From TrEMBL:
Residue ranges of the TM segments: 69-87, 99-120, 141-169, 225-246, 258-278, 301-322, 334-355, 457-483, 495-514, 526-547, 567-593, 613-638
Pfam families assigned: SNF
Major site of localization recorded for this protein: membrane
Classification via NCBIfam families: Na_transp
Organism: Carlito syrichta (Philippine tarsier)
Protein name: Transporter
PROSITE patterns: NA_NEUROTRAN_SYMP_1 (PS00610), NA_NEUROTRAN_SYMP_2 (PS00754), NA_NEUROTRAN_SYMP_3 (PS50267)
Keyword Transmembrane: yes
Length: 727
């Protein structure tokens, strides 16, 4: 500050004066506001803190448009689970009846908590670590746990993208390589591969050609070099998409978020034209009402809501933190949630239309095979021709004719019927065969596509859609890791992002061993579910019960310009925490009652067998869950006993573009009078007095007593292009 300033002259007076900061700055000589820095904590480090604030606050990257932001949120929330997990859950849990618990939980848990994450990210403009440190420093470990869960999910999720890349390149040939079993030549004779003959061509290609899978998780089998290369390609694509932050990923979202809807629309039209498509759709939407009362169905519906909207990962908060403060995040929450649900239903229609077609094909194949058995029994006089209805024509045997013949034989030969080995060939049995996860995409759906005209084209489109769906989710997952770390520790963005991708690739080699698919099951089904539930319930408690629902609603009113519905108040305060507490308890009980396991592919049997995880795998699983949740109690204990600074008494204020922005962390009551209230209500975390006491030259300002600033976001004033009258 210039020595001849009026403010400096008054410091040499012993007269006690009370002035506002606006009054003090009004007495100051004109300065260059773009270059000037007033360092509250002392001269040393002032320029550094000013530069940090310039980067961290007003120069924070922003979305180019609202459309880009919405597409990013859609790309993150709409992922591979919408394509294969939601249809499987519908099929398993009562068809159309499953939509009832899903919709109820989406309304009372999903949308309110999605709105909450959007709001806190936009309000505080930080990643998950900074947000939860701001809301409640003692629960600041929530942000670190979110980063760890994102890392776990990203490790195996990109492996699935690698599988899709492998199938994508294999689709450029006719016939498709999984349409027929390979032939083994032995001299002059040729025989089918035994493993393929016992199962099916698509099943064999998936387990043997693609994964080259071992018989159990204990048999590593070494690296699968084909999948290792595909994993490298997948991480290279993700790295290029996120290396520049939202400047690069935002542009990618225009294609990766919209292209899947084009493909789904094409598949829906094509699927509805297939014979048997209506059978599949009617089977899916026929409700089994008894399933609605099953607690397991509700638990699975709640878990699907969490994963579908990306709750607890930190990606939603990260994307929202790049928004303007006056953005209508309430509308965004409803819009993205509706689009997510619509996408799940659309994908389910496509899947069941195609599976209905496949079921009809397999049913006809069953009829032909069993009709040949009956002809053989007729030719060997095992069965009398009098048992065959006169109108039955074996050359053009319909399903109805076969069922009539089957029932007659079963009635007459009741005592010896089982020895005949005849199958009823019911369409419902084919439709009831539940195929989940990777089996739905890489076995059932690929088998159905082999019967399509121009099957390579549809295969290319399908796996390109999967790659884009996975890429959109991976961009959000990476944002959940990089944004909070970069915000908190100020590491170089490009270097840190590239380092994350390289590190994740090498750790991801675990999943491209011959036993890698079993580790994917461990991470996907168990390691992330329980930590995510804990994270989400603590997020809700931190805002609703610690920060205060009324205070949060008031800040939303100031930020949005209107008061959100009282519905959210009651959901955040009472309903959502109660529902999530029940869900957490149910998840823990489920793990205790049903030991975790996986479906292993046994080569000799050419069939799947459910195996429990061995002791070392159980220890690894428990360690993963512990690592993901450990930051929460550790940070709580460290800050409770003052072993780790909670950022109290730290303030960062930026004057720029006619606004004052500030970040205050855990202010004590006695300190509130020392800080400034912004003239823009939406920029102030809570109302505070606008004046402070100036104690004269003989006293030390409480802000200066701390010496060099060590707060989370630094302590200092940055003056930039704001006239004094604005203060």
């Amino acid at each position: 500050m210039p020595k001849n300033s009026k403010v400096t002259q008054r410091e040499h007076s012993s007269e006690h004066v009370t002035e506002s900061v606006a009054d003090l700055l009004a007495l100051e000589e004109p300065v260059d506001y773009k270059q000037s820095v007033l360092n509250v904590a002392g001269e040393a480090g002032g320029k550094q803190k000013a530069a940090e604030e310039e980067l961290d606050a007003e120069d924070r990257p922003a979305w180019n448009s609202k459309l880009q932001y919405i597409l990013a949120q859609i790309g993150f929330s709409v992922g591979l689970g919408n394509i294969w997990r939601f249809p499987y859950l519908c099929q398993k849990n009562g068809g159309g009846a499953y939509l009832v618990p899903y919709l109820v939980l989406l309304i009372i848990i999903g949308i309110p908590l999605f709105f909450l994450e959007l709001a806190v990210g936009q309000r505080i403009r930080r990643g998950s670590i900074g947000v939860w440190h701001y809301v409640c420093p003692r629960l600041g470990g929530i942000g670190f746990s979110s980063c760890i869960v994102c890392l776990f999910v990203g490790l195996y999720y990109n492996v699935i993208i690698g599988w899709s890349i492998f199938y994508f390149f294999k689709s450029f040939q006719y016939p498709l390589p999984w349409s027929e079993c390979p032939v083994i030549r032995n001299g002059t004779t040729t025989v089918l591969e035994a493993e393929c003959e016992k199962s099916s061509a698509t099943t064999y290609f998936w387990y043997r050609e693609a994964l080259d899978i071992s018989d159990s998780i204990s048999e590593s089998g070494g690296l699968n070099w084909k999948m290792t290369l595909c994993l490298l390609v997948a991480w290279s694509i993700v790295g290029m998409a996120v290396v520049k932050g939202i400047q690069s990923s935002g542009k990618v979202m225009y294609f990766s978020s919209l292209f899947p809807y084009v493909v789904l629309a094409c598949f829906l039209v094509r699927g509805l034209l297939l014979r048997g498509a209506i059978d599949g759709i009617l089977h899916m939407f026929t409700p089994k009402l008894d399933k609605m009362l099953d607690p397991q169905v509700w638990r699975e519906a709640a878990t699907q809501v969490f994963f579908a909207l990306g709750l607890g990962f930190g990606g939603v908060i990260a994307f929202s933190s790049y928004n303007k403060q006056d953005n209508n995040c309430h509308f965004d929450a409803a819009l993205v949630s509706f689009i997510n649900f619509f996408t799940s239903v659309l994908a389910t229609l496509v899947v069941f239309a195609v599976l209905g077609f496949k079921a009809n094909i397999m049913n006809e194949k069953c009829v032909v095979e069993n009709a040949e058995k009956i002809l053989g029994y007729l030719n060997t006089n095992v069965l009398s021709r009098d048992l065959i209805p006169p109108h039955v024509n074996f050359s053009h045997l319909t399903t109805k004719d076969y069922m009539e013949m089957y029932n007659v034989i079963m009635t007459v030969k009741e005592d010896r019927f089982s020895a005949l080995g005849l199958n009823p060939c019911l369409l419902e049995d084919e439709l009831d065969k539940s195929v989940q996860g990777t089996g739905l995409a890489f076995i059932a759906f690929t088998e159905a596509m082999t019967h399509f005209p121009a099957s390579p084209f549809w295969s290319v489109m399908f796996f390109l859609m999967l790659i884009n769906l996975g890429l959109g989710s991976m961009i959000g997952t990476m944002a959940g890791i990089t944004t909070p770390i970069i915000d908190t520790f100020k590491v170089p963005k490009e270097m840190f992002t590239v380092g994350c991708c390289v590190f994740a690739f090498f750790v991801g080699l675990l999943f491209v061993q011959r036993s890698g698919n079993y580790f994917v099951t461990m991470f996907d089904d168990y390691s992330a579910t329980l930590p995510l539930t804990v994270i989400v319930i603590l997020e809700n408690i931190a805002v609703a019960w610690i920060y205060g629902t009324k205070k949060f609603m008031q800040e939303l009113t100031e930020m949005l310009g209107f008061r959100p519905y009282r519905f959210y108040f009651y959901m955040w305060k009472f309903v959502s925490p109660l529902c999530m507490a029940v869900l957490t308890t149910a998840s823990i009980i489920q793990l205790g009652v049903t030991p975790p396991g996986y479906s292993a592919w046994i080569k000799e049997e050419a069939a799947e067998r459910y195996l429990y995880f061995p002791n070392w795998a159980m220890a690894l699983l428990i360690a993963l869950i512990a690592v993901a949740t450990l930051p929460i109690p550790v940070v709580f204990i460290l800050r409770h006993f003052h072993l780790l600074s909670d950022g109290s008494n730290t303030l960062s204020v930026s004057y720029k573009k006619g606004r004052m922005m500030k970040d205050i962390s855990n202010l004590e009551e006695n300190d509130e009078t020392r800080f400034i209230l912004s003239k823009v209500p939406s920029e102030a975390p809570s109302p505070m007095p606008a004046h402070r006491s100036y104690l004269g030259p003989g006293s030390t300002s409480p802000l200066e007593a701390g010496g060099n600033p060590n707060g989370r976001y630094g302590s200092g004033y940055l003056l930039a292009s704001t006239p004094e009258s604005e203060l």
